[in-house]
Request: fold
Amino acid sequence: MKRFEGLARPSTLAAGVVFLAGGILDLALRLTGDPASELVQTPVFAVRSIALLGGALLLILSLVSIYERHAKQIGPFGFSAAIVAGTGTILISGQFWAEAFLYPTLGRVAPGLLDGTDRAGSYAFGLMLTAAVFGVGWLLLGTAILRARVYRVLPAVVILAGGAVSLLPGNALGQTVLGAGLVLLSFSPSYRKHEGPKRQASPAR
Reply:
C-alpha cells in the first residue's frame, strides 16, 4: 500500500480543482433560474457531471493515499473518519453517475421529480443519506487531520467546513468549500511526525 503515498498530492489537487470548479458551475447554473429538469439537459451540466464523477473517483484515491501516509499520526479516530469519508465518497460517486447519465432522461420523462413538484419518496431519501454520510465523513476527516497536525491548520479547517456544509443535500456550496480545502491541502507541507518544539540541548558541564 505504500506505493499510494506518492499519489496523495496530485490526486488531491486534481479532485480539489474539479470539486471547486464543479461547485462554482453549479452555483452559476442555479442563478439562471431555469428549472432543474431543463438544466440537466444542457451540455454544460453534462460536462460538469462527468467531471465531478472523475473528481470523486480521484478523491477516493486521494483519501487512500493520505491515510496510508499518516495512518500512525491520525490514529484510530482517523481510521474511522477515513472509512466514513470513503463510504460517503463512493455514494456521491453514484450520485454523480446518475446526474451524468440518468438525470437528462428524468428531465424529459419525469421533470416534476427533479423540479420538486412530484413526491420524491426513496429518491429524496437517497439524496439525504448520501449528503449525510459524505458530509459527516469529511467533517470527521478534517477534524482528524486538524488534531494530528500532519498538515497546516487552514486546509484542515476548510475541509472540515466543507464537510459540514455538505450535510445539506443538493447544496453546491459544500463541494465548493471542500474543493478549496483539498486544493489548499495539496500545497500544504506534510509532516510525518507530530512533534512539539525541539528543546535546545543543555550545554555539557
Notes: The chain has one domain: 2-186.
